Amino acid sequence: MAVKTLTINDRLVSARESETILEAARDAGIHIPTLCHLEGLSDVGACRLCLVEIAGSHKLQPACVTKVAEGMEVKTDSEKLQKYRRMIIEMLFAEGNHVCSVCVANGNCELQDLAVEMGMDSVHLNYQFPQRTVDLSHDRFGIDHNRCVLCTRCVRVCDEIEGAHTWDVAGRGHNAHVITDLNQPWGTADSCTSCGKCMMACPTGAIFAQGTTVSEMTKERDKLEFINTARKNQEWIL
Amino acid sequence: MSKLLDKITIHLDNAGQIEDARFHVTEFRGFEKFCEGRPLWEMPGITGRICGICPVSHLLASAKAGDRLLWQLIFLLLRRNYVV
Amino acid sequence: MNKLKLATVWLGGCSGCHMSFLDLDEWLIDLATQVELVYSPIADIKEYPEGVDIVLVEGAVANEDNLELIKKVRDRSKILISFGDCAVTGNVTALRNPFGDPEPFLQRSYLEAADIQNQIPHEPGIVPALLEQVKPVHDVVEVDVYLPGCPSNANHIRAALEMLLMGEVPHLSGKLIRFG
């Protein structure tokens, strides 16, 4: 197994050949903010929050899907990146209807945490106020599309860990939204096993357990971690 | 009261008699409409924001209304399944 | 030394942020020794005065009265603080925005849901017309300090005001700028 040596923020870091910049940075204790990345799922580079600067490249690269290379010089926290990241969060807030104060995930929301991290005290883009729907047809869960940031974590967790592939994305651009089965009410989606992994994976209050009120929703992400560890170490094989 | 909920105006005529009096409450936000279609359990959190001075009364009212709805639901389910 | 002139303004909101401000309790007495309250919904003053040093603006811009007042407030004040989530983001006041036109809201509230006297209030010059879209304060006028929260935590208000009293315009960060 080849080892690559690179510098991240002027620090020498060694990483396995197969690792991404994000993994190498996290192993070295260097923080890179992420939203669509979730441990145990494949990465898609959808949210662009983990963009980093690589010397010699004029393009910013998403750390979660860029593999390490020998002699790479990476900057994760330059002023330009901070500006970009704040703008990304502002765009996410302006694009949906994110009303933190009356959201089930208030206080347990990754988007809200990221806004604090980026120092976002206000949004200077025009709020879009899209008209989106709430689907409460499922017995145990609900989805409020107003709070969806299209990170596609639910799509990936359902496909890769549960193996049901109930979730998918329909529409393009402004019209993109997550759907269940053949774009039908969640309650009628036969492939859904009601496992709740999409709810655990969802970074915001978009997918929630029915019966939770404002600020009450916790994501129980340790359950996902448990399954991931079990799969990785094949702990169920005797 | 006039200091908290906007203002009260009293108009007098020339003889000093009250001609018109108005209680100005112009704080219209449309909770009646935008709450429609939202999950029942979020209602106490949303209606609590009707008034910052008396959020508890709005919160309790909506919690009680929600309880009544659920009670009706249980009643209907019971009737459908168990009552001959 | 002249006392700083402090004002608080209530636009389209629930007044919860003012309640949170009053939650500062005994610190308000300290504050009163350093500032003069020149305009506030909790004081009986009819007209927004000139030469205000610090103004806390609660609520979003939801109707024509709000719009008129906030422009006057901006003209006559040095430091304008966008106070609470409604002022900063529109928050609950802006929940009607995705529906567009406010007319269906008036119909639902005053006609369909009314028990008695079902009519939409219409008194030009007295009842202010609703704006098509509720706007956060910084969409209409320039804002100097943002203090979000629903409501803003009393200690956060104090932290911001203390910095202002020492003569600096605070750049808030961390939990002080957390929405919700």
Automatic annotation (TrEMBL), chain A:
* Localization per record: Membrane
Q: Which cofactor does it need?
A: [2Fe-2S] cluster; [4Fe-4S] cluster
Residue span(s) of domain 2Fe-2S ferredoxin-type: 2-80
Q: What positions does the domain 4Fe-4S His(Cys)3-ligated-type occupy?
A: 80-119
Q: What does UniProt give as the signal peptide span?
A: none
**UniProt keyword annotation of Cell wall biogenesis/degradation present:** no
Keyword list, A-Z: 2Fe-2S, 4Fe-4S, Iron, Iron-sulfur, Membrane, Metal-binding, NAD, Translocase
Family classification:
Belongs to the complex I 75 kDa subunit family.
Protein name, please?
Answer: Bidirectional hydrogenase complex protein HoxU
What organism does the record attribute this protein to? Waterburya agarophytonicola KI4
Gene that specifies this protein? hoxU
From TrEMBL, chain C:
Write down the Pfam families for this protein, in alphabetical order: Oxidored_q6 (PF01058)
**What Gene3D superfamilies is this protein classified in?**
NADH:ubiquinone oxidoreductase-like, 20kDa subunit (3.40.50.700)
Cross-referenced SUPFAM superfamilies, in alphabetical order? HydA/Nqo6-like
Q: Any idea where the NADH:ubiquinone oxidoreductase-like 20kDa subunit domain is?
A: 14-163
Q: Which domain of life is it from?
A: Bacteria
On whether Cell inner membrane is a keyword of this UniProt record, the answer is no
A GO molecular function annotation here is: oxidoreductase activity
InterPro entries for this protein: Hydrogenase_assoc-protein, NADH_UbQ_OxRdtase-like_20kDa, NiFe_Hase_small_N_sf
Q: Which UniProt keywords apply?
A: Oxidoreductase
- What is the protein's name according to its record? Oxidoreductase
What organism does this protein naturally occur in?
A: Waterburya agarophytonicola KI4
